[in-house]
Amino acid sequence: MVATGSAVRVRLAPSPTGTLHIGTARTAVFNWLFAHRHGGQFLLRIEDTDRTRSKPEYTANILEGLAWLGLHWDGEPVIQSERIEAHRSAIQQLLDSGRAYRCYANEAELTEMRERQAAENRAPRYDNRHRDLSPEQEQAYIAEGREATVRFRIDDNAEITWTDLVRGEMRWAGSDLGGDMVIARRAPADQIGDPLYNLVVVVDDAAMAISHVIRGEDHIANTAKQLLLYGALGATAPVFAHTPLILNQEGKKLSKRDGVTSVSDFQRMGYTAEALANYMTLLGWSPPEGMGERFTLAEAAAAFDFERVNRAGARFDWDKLNWLNSQVLHGRSPAALREALVPLWRAEGWLPADPSADAAASSAADPAWQEQLAALLGPSLVLLADGVEQARPFFERPELSEAAVKQLASDGARPALQALLELLPEGALSSEQAQALLGDAVSAAGVKKGVLMKSLRAALLGSLQGPDLLSTWLLLQPSGEAAARIQRSL
């Protein structure tokens, strides 16, 4: 897979025409794992040559998403649009060597050609009509004012082969590549238009000394074309690995129609970087026996190889991602959970906008109180966002549910709560003090403890379900909110 003494240099080359897609992020994970497995470098190239659709905010989103996932890259990102002269120089080299030529076919002629091929039930392909123009023919087209694309000559009899790290021996016939390939857009005949994808990728990968190109299987046809370009430019081709696509539950390629597909969407939904990176590693890669399915990126890198990457598409499993995320959250300390949840609580307006605001203003603004709430909610969280709805009753007085109203109207409920209210002191309570108060209230009201406990839950939470009752009471007690809610229920 990697020759002894050879330097591993891989790259991620996203196009900033949209936010960081989960498929691109999974490609980034595999590149990062491979680089770290072999002590190599993980490089980043922003392929922004689509001037119309590329936007700075998408570049920022990609960089932020990769950093959030922990996929830190080596060196400064290469900006592809800044290398256009190197791309044009390579095209000129191909023109000078006769491996490329100018094609003057206009759009109307190409449309007529494609329509004829479709009518004859043939696959669309360029018919190489301008491959061997005489100087006189070329001058005639120029005199007409025609602009020219630049096309790379593809020999129909060529056989392109490579050893793919995922798929093994690959063979591709030149006749299956659609005719001579456009490598520069239309421009006046004395100029070279905007260089196109397959050409610029080859030039940039060669300039960056990329040793391995790891990308999705939808690039396999591009690989065949690019290998021809490497040969024509006299450059050493990298080793290729084509990973399986990510599929939806119906077995089709995951797309925007499936809803959440960008890393920032997963982040907003409350998934953790650890769980998402862990899960993306499992999308197409099988960990060695005994490793389990929960691991860090560093642990995965120590075991990663392409022999365990599947050829078949990887179906996205929400249940597994949710399980991994819950395991990450359940393993976090109360302090770490608090740190993650406080921004969400602040966004709801429950905490001061200024984190340095006086904590004495309310118990909810006290970091110690927040940490106790995080500890209470932690074991039931699947997503970080769950920590908003589950925390709501601690910041906002809840409405009474129908079941709560029924419980509060049941025999013994009012006397039990009245007895507890009369015994309730001001200020914080310890767990031992709360337990003693419950016992005293039960005795004073002459009811079973279960009646008081169910009624207290209904009074405090407005529901008969929720987190541990005693812990809930202790959190609501210091501010006087526990007494206020009990009073309301009476």
Structure write-up:
The protein has 490 residues and is mainly alpha-helical. It has helices at 22-37, 56-69, 84-97, 107-119, 135-143, 197-207, 220-233, 263-269, 273-282, 297-303, 318-330, 334-347, 367-377, 386-389, 392-395, 402-408, 413-423, 431-445, 449-461, 469-476, 481-489, and strands at 9-12, 41-46, 78-79, 100-103, 148-152, 159-164, 168-173, 181-187, 212-216, 239-243, 246-247, 314-315. A three-stranded parallel β-sheet has the order 1-2-3. Helix 6 (197-207) crosses helix 7 (220-233) and helix 17 (413-423) packs across helix 19. The longest helix has 16 residues, at 22-37. The radius of gyration is 32 Å and the shape is elongated. The termini are far apart. The mean pLDDT is 93.
Descriptive key words:
12 strands, 21 helices, three-stranded parallel beta sheet, mainly alpha, three-stranded antiparallel beta sheet, about 500 residues, about 10% strand
Question: What is the structure about, briefly put?
Answer:
By secondary structure, this protein is mostly helical. The chain has helices at residues 22-37, 56-69, 84-97, 107-119, 135-143, 197-207, 220-233, 263-269, 273-282, 297-303, 318-330, 334-347, 367-377, 386-389, 392-395, 402-408, 413-423, 431-445, 449-461, 469-476, 481-489; strands at residues 9-12, 41-46, 78-79, 100-103, 148-152, 159-164, 168-173, 181-187, 212-216, 239-243, 246-247, 314-315.
